[in-house]
Design a protein that fits this description.
The chain is α/β, with parallel strands linked by helices. It is about 30% helix and about 25% strand. The chain has 10 helices and 13 strands. The strands form 3 sheets. A 6-stranded mixed β-sheet has the order 5-6-7-3-8-9, with helices on both faces. Helix 3 packs across helix 4. The chain binds adenosine-5'-triphosphate. The site of adenosine-5'-triphosphate (ATP) has 11 residues, from strand 2 and helix 1.
Length: about 300
């Protein structure tokens, strides 16, 4: 995708974005609500023409050459449209009839961990199981490019991990995967590269390590009882940010590059001198969530 722009009337929902996704790579498209992710995905999936810019999937225009591209694409929308009275196996059989060169039904249900639900009616599936059936249908036609729109919404942690394994398997087989999610740990876990969109633009792009770099390390702890916030130390130029979590005030410092170790040393010395125990003390590099919140706050580069 090169310079994609999309408008709804006078409103520019996508304001010139570019990215590419290679085979055997998972690209996560993240962003605030209304950032333009769905509009972007709908364009690459061939549902709408680009207002400006160039979009190619497998070397072709996904809108104008939809017939050629669509059979090689697997699409998992946010809401699948199932027939509630069909069983899981019947649903897969129905879609196999519409798909050239489909995978065997058993294989696809095995891939998504629904083999033991084959005889269950769709209306009796849980929300997470429906998402897995959606994934089964997306991979039925042995796609080379897969679009997953919030694939693990409603899944319990175990089902989510099982789905991550399935998705990793696709990537290992050389499939190009584009995923949107509001679960940042999902992007951290799966993405080879990612982009964070905000108000129609890509604000940050790169590997998880690349986008986290430059956002500093974090040190945090629960503010000890009886201590006034004003009495907390400044650590290598960083003042604490105070957040109330439950009953406790938590102090977090965002440190500049290379100052984590000396800042921690100063903090521990200060705590010793004041005979304070620092509950919940943690030191870590910036998470994707830190980068995301910074971007969503409009302060991105
Ligand atoms: N058919 C439409 N007509 C007018 N405006 C639209 C239309 N579809 C989307 N928009 C607007 O375009 C912007 C981008 O919407 P889009 O659905 O692409 O965002 P998103 O990143 O997918 O958001 P979310 O995370 O909330 O799903 C939003 O401001 C939305 O209100």
């Amino acid at each position: 995708m090169e310079g994609l722009r999309q408008r709804y009337g006078d409103f520019e929902a996508v304001a010139g974005i570019s990215f590419d996704v290679r085979h055997g790579e998972l690209f996560a498209l993240l962003g605030t609500n209304g950032a333009g992710k769905t509009t972007t995905l709908e364009t690459v999936e061939g549902y709408r023409p680009a207002h400006a810019g160039t979009v190619r999937v497998l070397g072709r225009d996904p809108y104008r050459e939809r017939r050629a591209v669509r059979p090689r694409m697997g699409i998992m929308l946010q809401e699948g449209g199932f027939l509630a009275d069909l069983t899981v196996a019947e649903t897969v059989d129905h879609w196999r009839g519409l798909t050239p060169d489909p995978r065997p039904g058993d294989e696809v249900l095995d891939m998504v961990g629904l083999a033991d639900r084959a005889g269950v009616r769709v209306r009796q599936l849980s929300g997470g199981q429906k998402r897995r059936l959606d994934l089964a249908l997306a991979v039925l036609g042995r796609p080379r490019v897969v679009f997953l729109d919030e694939p693990t919404t409603g899944m319990d942690p175990e089902a989510r991990r099982a789905t991550w394994r399935t998705v990793r398997g696709l990537v290992a087989d050389g499939v190009a995967v584009v995923l949107t999610t509001h679960y940042l740990e999902e992007a951290e876990e799966l993405a080879d590269r990612l982009a964070i969109m905000h108000r129609g633009r890509v604000e940050v792009e790169g590997t998880v390590a690349e986008v986290s770099a430059g956002h500093g390390d974090r040190v945090g702890f629960a503010v000890p009882d009886r201590l006034a916030v004003a009495d907390l130390p400044v650590l290598h130029g960083a003042a604490p940010r105070i957040e109330v979590r439950g009953e406790r005030a938590v102090a977090t410092y965002r440190l500049g590059g290379g100052t984590l170790q000396p800042a921690l040393r100063d903090l521990l010395r200060w705590a010793d001198e004041h005979r304070l125990a620092l509950d919940g003390l943690e030191a870590r590099s910036a998470s994707l969530e830190d980068v995301f919140l910074h971007t969503a706050g409009g302060e991105a580069r």
